[in-house]
Write a structure and sequence with these properties.
Number of strands: 15
Largest sheet: 8 strands, mixed
Number of helices: 9
Structural class: alpha+beta
Distance between the termini: 82 Å
Shape: globular
Strand content: 25-35%
């Protein structure tokens, strides 16, 4: 009996050691950002400063790691049954060239990007931001960027590779500081949660000649968070950030892929198999009464609302852009001169359409 007890004790000790080693291995494989930390900043020596009263053009775009529109990735279907895992190198190269040509044509002052890959197995370990900057030219000499998915290996059966994905701000104007703000995270079992996204807000501060600053923020909120309050908590965190900026007297522009519908008729416009991704009462509702927006809510409720759709799902059942889930938000004191969704030249480049807005710096 004593011998059996000793064997069981040894076996238990070995099991505990193996579990501890596995936990340590997982910990070492993934990123562990702080709640608030400096983001990467290449300030662009000699870049001009913004001026009070000038017009500022901003382009915001989820570029879907430059995969293009020729795939149905496994996560593009509700049940995870999409046939594709990775785009081809040729598709990425062509999409990078097409996206860069579009940006050069539009020539915005600031570019806000989501879903940029770097050192990721699915995109052949390239530095997509560096490649994109090389293609658009030297005018956007200032860069801020922050990771929101980074692991040396993800053991998902449809991934099984290293991953790296970023938010980025490219600017013709000086950026004096860049900060990464961690968003609340989805729940789940410890292993899944460890390898999942660490969604974030990237904030860049642009000094204004003669005093003052403008803050620009880019983000990409969670998807597939039905059944819990993740989206509400992420929206609340962003609201807290921008309200803090307003309290400082800093004008701001926040944009990105929110993965949320606007309030009103948008939920009912989608068939049941598409509306399942969203809550009937959108977590984003309070933003539209509190802040200015692009698209404006009245446009998304009107007869021409299709002109403001920003998302063209890779689902084969969807044949054209059919919903708005990407936005600009800004304080109502910030003057908006022009806004549009860029459609025809971008339909083949991503499952999201780029948004363009022109503001006046106060």
């Amino acid at each position: 009996m004593k011998k059996l007890s000793r064997i069981l004790a040894v076996a238990l000790s070995v099991l505990v050691a193996l579990v501890a080693l596995a936990a340590l291995a997982v910990f070492l494989m993934v990123d562990h950002p702080r709640q608030t930390q400096p983001a990467f900043l290449e300030s662009g020596e000699g870049a001009p400063r913004l001026r009070h009263g000038q017009e500022l053009t901003v382009l915001s775009w989820n570029v879907q790691y430059f995969a293009g529109k020729g795939y149905v990735f496994f996560y593009d279907l509700w049940d995870g049954s999409g046939p594709d895992e990775v785009p081809s190198e040729e598709a990425i190269a062509l999409t990078l060239e097409g996206a860069a040509a579009l940006v050069r044509e539009i020539d915005p002052d600031i570019i806000l990007l989501q879903e940029i890959d770097e050192d990721s197995g699915r995109t052949y370990f390239g530095d997509q931001l560096a490649l994109f900057r090389g293609l658009i030219g030297p005018a956007w000499r200032v860069e801020a960027s922050a990771w929101y998915w980074r692991a040396s290996f993800v053991p998902h059966p449809r991934v099984m590779a290293k991953v790296g994905m970023k938010l980025a701000v490219l600017s013709k104007y000086e950026i004096s500081a860049a900060t990464r703000h961690q968003l609340p995270r989805m729940g789940g079992d410890p292993v899944t949660r460890a390898f999942n996204f660490r969604r974030a807000v990237l904030e860049a501060r642009l000094p204004v000649e003669g005093g003052g600053e403008l803050a620009v923020l880019t983000t990409h909120l969670d998807a597939f968070a039905q059944g819990d309050d993740t989206m509400a908590r992420q929206v609340a965190k962003l609201e807290n950030l921008v309200d803090g900026l307003s309290a400082e007297g800093v004008p701001w522009i926040a944009s990105g892929d929110f993965n949320l519908l606007p309030p009103g008729r948008a939920y009912g416009d989608l068939p049941a198999e598409q509306s399942v991704y969203y809550q009937k009462e959108t977590e984003l509702a309070r933003f539209f009464g509190k802040y200015g927006s692009v698209p404006p809510l009245e446009a998304m409720e009107g007869p021409d609302r299709a002109a403001w759709y920003t998302h063209f799902p890779n689902d084969p059942a969807v044949s054209a852009p059919d919903r708005t889930i990407d936005y600009f938000f800004f304080p109502k004191t910030l003057e908006l001169k022009e806004a549009r969704i860029i459609r025809d030249d971008a339909l083949s480049l991503s499952d999201h359409l780029p948004m363009f807005a022109r503001f006046v710096i106060p």
